[in-house]
Design a protein that fits this description.
By secondary structure, the protein is an all-alpha fold. The chain has one domain: Up-down Bundle (Methane Monooxygenase Hydroxylase, Chain G, domain 1), CATH 1.20.58.1000. It has three helices and no strands. Helix 1 packs antiparallel against helix 2 and helix 2 packs antiparallel against helix 3. The two termini are 25 Å apart.
């Protein structure tokens, strides 16, 4: 993973970690359910953005490398791996 992507993802993940701690506090404090669900949705959206950033970097680096290498087996492996992870993300 490129350093700039790594830094960006770590920054986002630390923010998400804070969101999740805040959610635990909301539950402990018996906050209104809809407020809790709204914050859960925000944390999920933030995680999706990190996921997209990591996947974009993977395609730009690992998949692109497999394509340019000319190694057909590696190309098939990388594409299959990418399709598996994308299909799991939709569930």
């Amino acid at each position: 993973m490129r350093q700039e992507i790594k830094s960006s993802c770590l920054k986002r993940l630390k923010r998400i970690e804070g969101q999740v701690r805040g959610l635990a506090g909301m539950v402990e404090d018996d906050r209104y359910c809809i407020d809790i669900v709204t914050q859960i949705a925000a944390a999920r959206a933030a995680l999706r953005r990190v996921e997209e950033e990591v996947l974009r970097d993977h395609v730009a680096h690992c998949v692109e490398h497999a394509i340019s290498s000319g190694d057909k087996a590696d190309q098939r492996r990388k594409i299959a791996e990418l399709m598996d992870v994308v299909s799991r993300a939709d569930r």
